[in-house]
Amino acid sequence: MIDEVLEIAASEFKAKCLALMDQLAARKLNRIVVTKRGRPVAVLTPPPTPEEIAGAFFGFMKGSVGAPEDFDFTAPVLDEPLDAAEGILHR
Predict the structure, then answer these.
(1) Hey, where are the domains in the chain?
(2) Is the pTM for the entire model greater than 0.70?
(3) Higher pLDDT among residues 23 and 4, named by residue
(4) How far apart are CA 32 and CA 41, in angstroms?
């Protein structure tokens, strides 16, 4: 993938948009900045791959939950049986 940013005028983008989007999809471009009168009006980037999405989610809550040192995660938390264990679906 090219790390350079392609800056293109809106009129030129309009004429070449399908080819430019194909380049984004093929990961030949990293980003396109569309300008009007020299000012950026839009930025196009390729969508993240499934691997990139999964990588962003893995571990994103690390360190956000804490438990006391002596907490037993394997111990039962309820004294009474669960409704589902008793065959009760609705109350």
Answers:
(1) 1-47
(2) no
(3) 23
(4) 11
